[in-house]
């Protein structure tokens, strides 16, 4: 084994000397640190020169404390009387944090200035039970002593998941203090709110003094790995907060210096508490010193060990929080009743001729009303999630609907979010249909409701309003200046349609409207243009808008536009988190508690702080849903009083799948109108809005052209029963062994075949429209009148079956034949065949029978599942199919087919029309010049087919975002594409 020998020589000697020198320096440093620590310990444990003097001083300090921090602010909490009154006259300036004990038998309360002065930090976080106790006791003291409602608290407690604030739960339930945040996202939200409160970005000229409310941010523990930027935000808030009424209590500050970036200086303007064992040291408060000041030397803090206040007794905490919550509710909570007309006045006593008006809340004892007229035509309402937007709106809607007769006010209510807003205005199902059938009661003012509506539905509503404005002859006025100085227009009476019946004012609410505008696509562009048009023209024509929603970038962008249509929205309502509907310089909505709103009638403009703002109020409004019974009773009353003949609202419910129409038994009458949509016969009249989503934008254009049959041939009832069987021996009822599903020979089918002379439509679902109605493709005698369902989505089978059912229902019993072709046995297909056969002759064939089925004499329908598969398996020449596409409709035969793949379908219809001598030229016809009609399929229902592929197929751009539960119905004849909610399975679940 080698023995290590140290280096020798001059260089080595130098290195040893250097090392010895370093060691000596370190030793001297350690000795100095020890000496300094000893001095510091001496300083905090002074040996009193004169104990009597110390006792007298403690006595004087106790007396001073009882004056500076009386009652809740300074009394020992474990001895606090149950009856101590809550809420003082003014913001508390000092609060007790513990007891100093300079001698074993000399004590005095330690107070620190906080609200109105600065902040408080503790160098350990709430995992130390002494820190947790301190935070709870300080918070309790402040809440109990502050004037009612003047102190807003936000809590952060990451390490204990919010348990630090658990005893304050009753305050959260009452809306006085939101639940604490526990992670980085929550911390950032709280910091953003505090920054909003402080508004460092507002003009330097703005005045910062906020006298009415204080925001207290209490951090029990920061989230692990809080980023340096967020720590810096806390530092900035500490510097700028006090003048704006923001104060911080931060435990665990400075945070552990893990990196150079996260190392933080002490929080400025704060009193620092340093935890020792078992006592704590309290540093000097901002701008003052506990000890006699020594010139040019920093203060040393309180020269005595301090024992921090412990957690208040839980029963006391609970009682105070419950009392505060109850007082808040008793003082401020009103009910919806307070916003409704006085009972002696009754309902519907006010006139809408000069405008609409309703109370929206109370500011103290004053009732605050807002209106819709030429000065305040439209409202913009903002708030974060769960801010009470729905509550506010419901109050407004009931307020209006109790004051104005349905002849004077009509409502359109649309919600674009995934919620249940406005479902309470949808007729209650009277028939167990789960909300899809007509029932009652509904608010008689409501024309249309869109629940979880598509953007296309929003467009349809705006088109309808635009069309209504055309009817009212509304011109586009020059923009109206918005602001406190805008001219006051003379009220314009609502136009009268005739002497007796006024033209109603229309109010349209678009909830979460940003979703309509969010995407930079054709729908977003049209929506913006229509909103601008309706907002500008509706002002003097009695058409009003309420746009509500959460803060959204699109709103910020719109506001930034100088000519923004938001200039037409002078009424701004900011609920908690909704300050973005106000001007950036207006901070009056910062820190609003739940149940309150800032209502501003000057486009959100603020004004000098302290000056009376006639155009702005902070109101409290009730939660109308606290008493569902009262709300429902009110709705029943309004419904019971409705004028005779008031139609139920047209309801579009985005999440519902319409069931296919049932096939009636032969004794039932057919339903040629197809009025089998969810709103049924109660559908309101006069709503004929467009459904085409990419056709010409003109309102009122029907989605599906209702042109007369091109070559309407006479009904075939004059033919002998059974005499129109396919002549060829391979026809569906012929030699290939196909039989009626009921086992009977088709020759025995009832007389009266083909008695319906009007062309019927193949229904595929419901149009997404203001008044949802069946989406259908009219099948007349023109070549190409067939329906192709395209896309691999398995719902295609159910939609095809639904179309067949709908057609079967619309023909007189026994008047048409159905041939059902499927590549394989399928119980759902069998069920369809069985159902159809109760009314019409039905034949089942497989791929090998397809060629024969093409020869169907008519009238009838070839219902083909998986046509791409069938044609391959059956080895069918495409030209045979093309001949059917061309000639079938002429004899009343239509193909209803589902192609899973678009390619084979595109190939089938790609063959251009060419000259072709007619097979059997009419006498005198010029056989050489006849042109064969192209083999087309006019009706396409596109499922999960991408937009680019649809564009290729149609030969023109089309807007289409494939999504579950939606399809695009295209009619080649009208070149119109309409968004459709396709049929589901008969039982509403899955697909056949
Ligand atoms: N005035 C009020 N006082 C007390 N609680 C209220 C008040 N208004 C609403 N709330 C309560 O606040 C919660 C959220 O209310 P609401 O649904 O109206 O908010 P929202 O802003 O419409 O929410 P979202 O944006 O998520 O749809 C509900 O639990 C509701 O009961």
UniProtKB/TrEMBL annotation:
Q: What are the Low complexity biased-composition ranges?
A: 485-496, 670-700
Q: What highest taxon heads this organism's lineage?
A: Bacteria
Q: Where is the composition biased (Pro residues)?
A: 657-669
Keywords per UniProt = ATP-binding, Nucleotide-binding
Q: Where is the FtsK domain?
A: 365-580
Species per Swiss-Prot/TrEMBL record: Plantactinospora mayteni
Using the UniProt annotation, give all residue ranges assigned to the region (Disordered): 472-497, 605-629, 649-759
Q: Where is the composition biased (Basic and acidic residues)?
A: 613-626
List compositional bias (Gly residues) regions by residue number.
Answer: 725-740
Q: Which residues bind ATP?
A: 383-390
What's the name of the protein?
FtsK domain-containing protein
């Amino acid at each position: 084994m080698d023995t290590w020998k140290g280096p020798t020589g001059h260089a080595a000697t130098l290195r040893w000397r250097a090392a010895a020198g370093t060691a000596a320096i370190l030793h001297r440093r350690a000795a100095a640190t020890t000496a300094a620590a000893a001095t510091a310990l001496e300083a905090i444990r002074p040996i009193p020169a004169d104990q009597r003097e110390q006792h007298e001083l403690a006595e004087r300090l106790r007396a001073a404390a009882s004056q500076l921090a009386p009652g809740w602010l300074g009394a020992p909490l474990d001895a606090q009387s149950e009856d101590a009154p809550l809420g003082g006259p003014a913001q508390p300036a000092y609060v007790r944090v513990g007891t100093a004990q300079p001698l074993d038998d000399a004590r005095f309360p330690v107070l620190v200035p906080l609200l109105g002065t600065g902040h408080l930090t503790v160098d350990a976080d709430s995992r130390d039970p002494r820190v947790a106790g301190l935070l709870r006791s300080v918070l309790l003291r402040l809440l109990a002593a502050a004037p009612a409602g003047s102190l807003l608290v936000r809590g952060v407690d990451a390490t204990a998941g919010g348990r630090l604030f658990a005893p304050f739960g009753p305050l959260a339930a009452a809306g006085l203090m939101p639940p604490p945040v526990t992670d980085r996202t929550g911390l950032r939200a709280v910091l953003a709110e505090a920054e909003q409160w402080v508004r460092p970005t507002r003009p330097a000229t703005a005045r910062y003094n906020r006298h009415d409310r204080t925001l207290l941010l209490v951090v029990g523990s920061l989230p692990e790995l809080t980023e340096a930027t967020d720590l810096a935000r806390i530092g900035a808030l500490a510097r700028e907060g006090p003048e704006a009424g923001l104060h911080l209590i931060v435990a665990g500050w400075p945070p552990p210096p893990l990196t150079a970036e996260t190392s933080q200086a002490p929080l400025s303007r704060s009193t620092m508490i340093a935890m020792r064992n078992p006592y704590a040291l309290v540093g000097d408060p901002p701008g003052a010193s506990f000890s006699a000041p020594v010139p040019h030397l920093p203060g040393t803090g309180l020269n005595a060990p301090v024992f921090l206040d412990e957690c208040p007794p839980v029963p006391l905490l609970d009682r105070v929080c419950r009392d505060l919550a109850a007082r808040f509710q008793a003082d401020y909570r009103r009910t919806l009743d307070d916003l409704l007309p006085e009972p002696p006045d009754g309902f519907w006593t006010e006139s809408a001729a000069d405008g609409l008006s309703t109370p929206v809340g109370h500011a103290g004892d004053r009732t605050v009303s807002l209106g819709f007229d030429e000065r305040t035509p439209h409202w913009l309402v903002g708030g974060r999630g769960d801010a009470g937007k729905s509550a506010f709106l419901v109050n407004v809607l009931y307020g209006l609907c109790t004051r104005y007769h349905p002849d004077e006010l009509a409502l359109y209510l649309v919600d674009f979010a995934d919620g249940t807003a406005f479902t309470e205005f949808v007729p209650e199902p009277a028939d167990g249909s789960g909300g899809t059938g007509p029932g009652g009661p509904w608010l008689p003012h409501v024309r249309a409701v869109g629940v979880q509506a598509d953007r296309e539905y929003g467009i349809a509503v705006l088109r309808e309003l635009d069309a209504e404005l055309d009817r009212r002859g509304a011109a586009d006025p020059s923009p109206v200046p918005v602001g406190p100085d805008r001219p006051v227009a003379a009220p314009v009476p609502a136009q009268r349609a005739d002497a007796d019946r006024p033209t109603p004012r229309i109010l349209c609410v678009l909830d979460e409207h940003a979703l309509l505008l969010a995407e930079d696509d054709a729908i977003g562009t049209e929506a913006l243009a229509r909103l601008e048009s309706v907002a500008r023209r509706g002002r003097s024509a009695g058409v009003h808008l309420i746009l509500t929603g959460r803060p959204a970038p699109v709103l910020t962008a719109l506001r930034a536009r100088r000519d923004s249509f938001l200039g037409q929205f002078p009424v701004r309502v900011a609920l908690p988190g909704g300050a973005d509907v106000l001007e950036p310089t207006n901070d009056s909505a910062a820190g609003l508690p739940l149940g309150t709103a800032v209502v501003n009638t000057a486009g959100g403009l603020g004004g000098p702080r302290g000056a009376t703002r006639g155009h702005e109020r902070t109101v409290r409004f009730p939660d109308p849903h606290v008493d569902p019974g009262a709300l429902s009773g009110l709705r029943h009353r309004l419904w019971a009083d409705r004028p005779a003949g008031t139609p139920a609202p047209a309801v579009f419910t985005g999440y519902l799948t319409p069931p296919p129409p049932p096939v009636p038994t032969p004794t039932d009458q057919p339903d040629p109108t197809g009025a089998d949509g969810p709103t049924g016969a109660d559908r309101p009249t006069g709503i004929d809005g467009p459904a085409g989503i990419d056709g010409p934008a003109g309102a009122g254009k029907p989605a599906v052209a209702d042109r007369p049959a091109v070559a309407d041939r006479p009904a075939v009832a004059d033919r002998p029963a059974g005499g129109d069987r396919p002549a060829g021996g391979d026809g569906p009822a012929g030699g290939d062994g196909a039989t009626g599903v009921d086992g009977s020979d088709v020759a025995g089918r009832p007389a009266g075949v083909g008695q319906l002379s009007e062309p019927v439509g193949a229904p595929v679902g419901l149009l997404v429209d203001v008044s949802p109605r069946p989406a259908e493709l009219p099948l007349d005698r023109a070549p190409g009148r067939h329906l192709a369902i395209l896309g691999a989505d398995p719902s295609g089978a159910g939609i095809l079956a639904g179309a067949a059912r709908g057609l079967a229902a619309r023909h007189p019993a026994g008047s048409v034949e159905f041939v059902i072709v499927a590549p394989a046995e399928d119980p759902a297909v069998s069920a369809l065949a069985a159902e159809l056969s109760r009314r019409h002759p039905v034949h089942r064939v497989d791929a090998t029978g397809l060629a024969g089925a093409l020869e169907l004499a008519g009238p009838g329908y070839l219902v083909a599942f998986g046509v791409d598969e069938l044609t391959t398996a059956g080895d069918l020449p495409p030209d045979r199919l093309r001949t059917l596409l061309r000639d079938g409709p002429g004899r009343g035969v239509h193909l209803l087919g589902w192609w899973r793949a678009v390619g084979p379908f595109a190939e089938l219809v790609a063959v251009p029309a060419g000259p072709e001598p007619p097979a059997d030229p009419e006498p005198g016809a010029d056989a050489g010049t006849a042109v064969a009609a192209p083999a087309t399929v006019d009706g396409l229902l596109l499922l999960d087919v991408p937009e680019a592929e649809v564009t290729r197929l149609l030969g023109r751009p089309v807007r289409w975002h494939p999504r579950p539960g939606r399809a695009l119905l295209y009619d080649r004849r009208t070149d119109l594409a309409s968004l459709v909610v396709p049929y589901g399975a008969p039982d509403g679940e899955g697909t056949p």
